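Q&A log
Question type: sequence-to-structure
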Amino acid sequence: MRSSKGLVIALGLSLALNLALIGFVAGRASVAGMKHLAPDPSLGAFRLVHQLPEARRDALRPLIREHFRGIRPKLQQLHAAQTKIREALDSEPYAPAELERALGEFRTALLASQEHSHRALIRLASEMSPDERQQMMAAMAWNPGRRQNSSGHPHPPGPPPEGPHGP
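Response status: OK
Response body:
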């Protein structure tokens, strides 16, 4: 009786592991090759500029600089809100209202940073040719199976950018 109970448990575990493996393989196969816009399309857009010819990079550089000057304080607000979230989670006694307030500050800061990036994307796209906008759309494509760089962002398509950080 005891050995049959162990056999049933082993069979159940084997079945569960096989189903998990099948689900994993099917999930990976279903997203392979899928290309959609990233959750925030502006993420890949500014990397594209590094792949444009030097004359175009020079022409667009003031827009890029303006964007990064404006986004810096927004990112500082995000980091400050993240610190408040960690502090609220770590506080004793735990105060749910403090966490709720910190999360609200984070949402507000995140929305402000996204709005800034989206306005910058609109200005950048307005200065681009139709071909450059097509390249930007390809750079913004999100492919879950594509290799990512060290910051977790997908590499843009095409050859690596030239310059101090490229070949």
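Response note: Residues 13 and 29 are 24 Å apart (CA to CA).
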